[in-house]
Amino acid sequence: MTKGEIDPKNSVITSPNNLVEFTIKLRALTPTNFSSVRLFDRLPSQLTYVSGSTRLNDQSVPDGIITTTGISIPTLNPTQPATIKFLANVVSENGFSVGTTNLVNVARVEYPSGAKEAQIPITIRRGQVLGTSTIVEIAGVETGFNTLLLSVIAALIAGNIYLLFIQTGSRLKKQIGSSGRGRKDHNFIVV
Known about the structure:
Elements: E1 12-14, E2 19-26, E3 34-42, E4 47-49, E5 55-56, E6 59-60, E7 71-76, E8 82-90, E9 99-111, E10 114-126, E11 136-138, E12 141-143, H1 145-178
Parallel strand pairs: 1-10
Antiparallel strand pairs: 2-8, 3-7, 3-9, 4-8, 5-6, 5-8, 9-10, 11-12
């Protein structure tokens, strides 16, 4: 699978609204040819198949890879693999939460004596628009609306403590100044 890269990858990291090219390579693991091979692909619901994009060994083939009928691979031999490519669009941002969404694409090949499946992880990353009140995690610390409210409450408490301290300190200064004139009181410190 690739996302605009030339070399196929074992996983895909992409974003909403991107176009992803899937590449599936099949080959016979026995010394004999296989016939009556069918290939299916189960795209996650957040990806949509691009109609007319399926190619088998660089030749267009009818759509069907994501249907229950799949596509037919006429002959699969051990010396020449079959390369199937198709495109899919990642849905818009509305299809994802802010952060990372992990999906799995499954390719299934059926042949006369059995079937095999291969999975590839797909990571969709959706960023956050600054100034919104959604919750995100930054360096392991959750931020957002709930923590903003907590921060405001903490700031109000700290402000009230400071004002109380200022008022108490000025009363203490008045008491020191009016009682004892020149007397030093070592029981407290006024900052």
